[in-house]
């Protein structure tokens, strides 16, 4: 599609969340509509991206469910890749034709969060995300002359997006868009936690609790690191079977793992449920580290024994987006994929159209999918 960018805006098509908390199944309640949307020209520090591929993530679903409250109506989507079609006058690190990965945790480069080496998020980026705006401020989206909110500074469930240039990382053209999209969220979160939030020593075992898209990305990263035994833990037998096919040493459901007294030196919790967090601590070996990347509901509380932490020398680390710096870590994962050590394509469970977005959310909520990809 070719646009005349001399005008103040163009019309695109995208998936707009009208309101949060509608009843499941979403194929019936239809919280998301496919709308014609006005997209403004990029400003000085912004770029226009033609979206090639976007993934449906639990963070999108959590907004639909109302677990992660955001202003509505909002154009959803944060895990994506696309081609740069226009750059603002202040953007010097990108050019037209570049393939870019969207990153939903932009870094301003000037705040305490940005100086933490990935330990926690950019303060200004978080503020703009919560407000439904771009890092550069405000919205570039409207419908029928009424503003729409951005999702995590990206809004990738659309044919095009205008984003701040700090919300993308450029990748080589040899990385397909379906692989590139997953680098920005699933791989950066699940895999990044094992690179950044914990030091895995040679011979140490790793257990991954919760084998959704993020957890499975953690599992294939654990296998790529080749430190020691790698265990997959999930209630879903199909996901356990996939983990075995990918090379996991053994797989378990949670109850069996605890009953058989499984212990791992490093446990990656990616289920996003308090009970899974408790179980993860249960299977953590003395002296081990539990890295939790799941995002439970704010009301979902876990019970732990401080005595166990002290007596057994256990460590708990919280890791948002894999404690990653996207510009640093995405090229690392791209190289691992390029070398054949990281089968990112195994995370893709199905491909859907934008029109199928509500049923896609149903499938994700029902635990039927790892990553559903939308191809534009």
The CA-CA distance between the termini, in Å, is: 11 Å
Pick out the low-confidence regions. none
Strand content: 25-35%
| CATH fold group of the largest domain | Quinone Oxidoreductase, Chain A, domain 1
Indicate how many domains the architecture comprises: 2
Binned, the helix content reads 25-40%
| Rg (CA only) | 20 Å
Fourth-level CATH superfamily of the largest domain? Medium-chain alcohol dehydrogenases, catalytic domain
Q: Got a strand count?
A: 19
CATH architecture of the largest domain: Alpha-Beta Complex
Q: Provide a count of the helices.
A: 12
Structural topology:
Elements (H helix, E strand, L loop, with lengths): L8 E9 L8 H4 L2 E9 L5 E11 L1 H8 L8 E2 L3 E9 L11 E4 L20 H9 L9 E3 L2 E2 L1 E2 L9 E5 L3 E4 L5 H7 L2 H11 L9 E4 L3 H13 L4 E4 L3 H10 L3 E3 L1 H6 L4 E6 L4 H9 L1 E9 L13 H7 L2 E4 L7 H13 L9 E5 L4 H9 L5 E5 L1
Parallel strand pairs: 4-9, 12-13, 12-15, 13-14, 15-16, 16-17, 18-19
Antiparallel strand pairs: 1-2, 1-4, 2-7, 3-5, 3-10, 3-19, 5-6, 6-11, 7-8
Describe this structure in words.
The protein is an alpha/beta fold and 376 residues long. It folds into two domains: 9-184 and 343-375, Alpha-Beta Complex (Quinone Oxidoreductase, Chain A, domain 1), CATH 3.90.180; 188-322, Rossmann fold (3-Layer(aba) Sandwich), CATH 3.40.50.720. Helix content is 28%, strand content 27%. It has helices at residues 26-29, 58-65, 123-131, 177-183, 186-196, 213-225, 237-246, 254-259, 274-282, 306-312, 326-338, 357-365, and strands at 9-17, 32-40, 46-56, 74-75, 79-87, 99-102, 141-143, 146-147, 149-150, 160-164, 168-171, 206-209, 230-233, 250-252, 264-269, 284-292, 315-318, 348-352, 371-375. The strands form three sheets. Strands 3, 5, 6, 10, 11, 18 and 19 form a seven-stranded mixed sheet that branches. Strands 8-7-2-1-4-9 form a six-stranded mixed sheet, with no helix packed on it. The radius of gyration is 20 Å and the shape is globular. The mean pLDDT is 96.
